[in-house]
Each structure stands twice: as C-alpha cells, then as structure tokens.
Amino acid sequence: MSVTDDLAGRFRTLWDEIAPIGRVAGSGGYLRYALGEHEVLLRAWFREQAARREMPVTEDGNGNLFAWWGEPDAGDAVLTGSHFDSVPHGGAYDGPLGIVSALLAVDELRAAGVAPVRPVAVAAFVEEEGARFGVPCLGSRLLTGVLDADRAAGLRDAAGVSFAEALGGRPTGARPELVGRFSAFVELHVEQGRALVELDAPVAVATAIWPHGRWRFDVTGEGNHAGTTRMADRRDPMLTYAFTVLAANKEARLRGAHATVGRVSVESNATNAIPSKVTGWLDARAAEPETLTGLVDAVQAKAVERARRDGTEVALTEESVTPLVAFDGGLGGRLAALLDAPVLSTGAGHDAGVLAGHLPTAMLFVRNPTGVSHSPAESATDADCAAGVTALARVLAELACH
Ligand code: HGY
Ligand code: MN
Ligand code: MN
C-alpha cells in the first residue's frame, strides 16, 4: 500500500466518525444547524479530537473554537480550519472537510517529525452558512468586528430562539487582540463547481471571492377568499413575488451575474386563500461590485413597478453583504507556486473572505467530481481528500515550521 493510499484510509476512518451526525435518512443530506443538536455533537467531537492530539481548545466568546498545536498566547500563529454547520439538506463536505483535513495535516507533520516554530490553530467557525440565524459567516464577522455583537445577539432562528440564547450568553464581539495573534489563515474547502474536473487536478488555490449578499423582500397585499374575490379586485402579493423572482433571474443573466431565490415564506399559506404577505430572500452575486449593485437596483425597480400594478407594497431589506475579496496576492501566489496548483475564483462565500480583510488569507479547493454543492450530491474522493491533506500539510510546514 502506498503512503497516499494509507493517508486516504486514515482520512476515511476519521471521516466516518462524523459522517452519520445530522444525516437525514431520506435525502442523504445534512441538517447541521449552528449550535443545534447535531452541530453541538460535532463540536464535542472536535474537542475530543483536539484532546487526543493534546491540543488545548480555546473559545472566543462568539461560538468559534480553536484547537492549538503550540502555545495559544505565543502570537504569529497560523490559522486553518473551517465550519461544521450545513445548509438544510446540504452535503457532507462543505465545511467539515476543512476541519478534518486540518487535524490530519497536523498528524502528518507530527508523524514526519516536523515541529512548528509558531503555533498552528485549527478553527471551527460557527454559523458560516447563515442557515439558522440568517447572517452567513456570523462567527468570523463577530470575531473581526465586521458585525456588531448586539445585532448578532438579537438574530432569531425560525423557532424564535436568539443567537445569544443559543450561545448561552451575549456574544463578545470583536477580539482584535486574538485576530492580531494570527499571521495567516488558510481554509481548505471542497470545490463548489467543476473547474478542477476540467483541469484534471485534485487541488487548487483560490484567487478571489465574488462580492455577494442577501436581500429580503417583503410583499404585502390583502388576504382574501380564493373563491369569492373577483380577479380584478385582488391585491395578491404572490404575483409581485413571482414577477420579482423572474426579474431577478433575467437581470442576472443579462449581466453575467447570479441571482437565486431559494427561500420563501407565505402568510397565511392556505391553498384556498389569497396570501396577505409573501417574503422572499434574494441571494445575489457578481464578479464586480458595480454589477452586483446594478443587479439589485434593477430587481428592486422591477419589483416596485410590479407592486404598483398589483396594488401591493414591496420593501427590500439588505440582510448581509460581503465585498469583493481578492486573496492576499503574496500568500495565494506563494502557495500556488509551492503546490504547483491551478488558481480559481469562486462565487461562494467563506469565513476566509471575512478574515481576508484583517490578515493574509488563502484557500485551497479540493476537486468535487459532481461539481454540486449545498446538496446531498456534493462529493470528493478519499484520494483527492488525501491530496488536500498533503497540500495543507505542506502549506502549514511552509508557514509555521521554519
Ligand atoms: O453561501 C455561500 O456562499 C457559502 O457556501 N457559505
Ligand atoms: Mn456553503
Ligand atoms: Mn463552506
């Protein structure tokens, strides 16, 4: 058996420990809501893995965990890791792959007798997907002060539980002295497209994350009887909603951008009643910030115009926006040269995109044969995951071990 096969086997053994946690029997996808029962099990698993490796775990008061190889207070630390939470019925790899790979990369370095001259920290960031409390990268935004602690504390999930309640107290918010202890962050992630399949390469280095954000549009009309209300007398918010979704798709296509409405809530949600209110969530992304702004402005204008015709009202609220992230040229370029890996940009958001505003940051992507993500069809082979671990170990050796 080759060394690589052996590493693929070690990857599979560790991966299988978490594979059943939060998996839904029917869809094969995962329900791993931040601080929910399954993510809490994964956090306990993380602590246990850290303890096995004699890596002390610290918390930052915002729900983020850090397992340290080396002295946590020493400074100049190299940060790696990712997140455990998933989108509803999401795949296995988005997030956990970065944490499992980081633990195995530490094992690889130790087995090779390599010791860090500066600490290595493995992070498990909380609520990266925003699937429970609505704001993505909630943990890294809090840690860096991009998001105000009071606003985060008051965010509520679908059951009305606040983030502060789920966390067990008000989040601490910005921790500049902790952020200042990190000299670099490298997040390994499953690729969320098919570029590496086309390039026939197992691992890539990221160059940039598209600017992206989430906007809620609330359309209000008049609830009424489906059988007795004449068509001409209706003020039906579902029509305004439907038109807005189509307009978002069209405006995005016209600009080479991406627009998605993947979540909707309807009041009263009855088959035989005209709704009184429809709320949709627009996820919009584009390569350039001005394209994104133009797209959202155009969708809003179309929604307002349609609301006028429908006798409804529409209000657009920005819930979160992440600006364009160009990963630190020096670090990304250095890692691409080190690994002799291709470079890719992405439309997906990551904690690395938030931290990039505060320290040199880079990402590694691992090939995904289906190219599908945020779905049970997301995948990666054990051999490619082993290649990811090897690449990350080389990166940590380069950044932390001499
Ligand atoms: O939504 C995103 O881009 C991500 O995968 N968190
Ligand atoms: Mn994701
Ligand atoms: Mn992710």
What does this structure look like?
The chain has 402 residues and is α/β, with parallel strands linked by helices. The chain folds into two domains: 3-210 and 324-400, 3-Layer(aba) Sandwich (Aminopeptidase), CATH 3.40.630.10; 212-321, Alpha-Beta Plaits (2-Layer Sandwich), CATH 3.30.70. The chain is built from 13 helices and 15 strands. The two termini are 31 Å apart. The relative contact order is 0.17. The mean pLDDT is 96. The chain binds (2S)-amino(hydroxy)ethanoic acid (HGY) and manganese (II) ion (MN) (2 copies).
Please give the structural blueprint.
Blueprint: H1 3-18, H2 37-52, E1 57-59, E2 65-69, E3 77-83, H3 96-111, E4 120-125, H4 138-144, H5 149-154, H6 163-167, H7 176-179, E5 182-190, H8 195-199, E6 203-209, E7 212-220, E8 224-225, H9 237-255, E9 258-267, E10 273-274, E11 277-285, H10 289-310, E12 313-322, E13 325-326, H11 329-339, E14 343-346, H12 351-355, E15 361-366, H13 382-400
Bound molecules: (2S)-amino(hydroxy)ethanoic acid and manganese (II) ion (2 copies).
Residues 83, 94-95, 128, 189, 350 line the site of one manganese (II) ion.
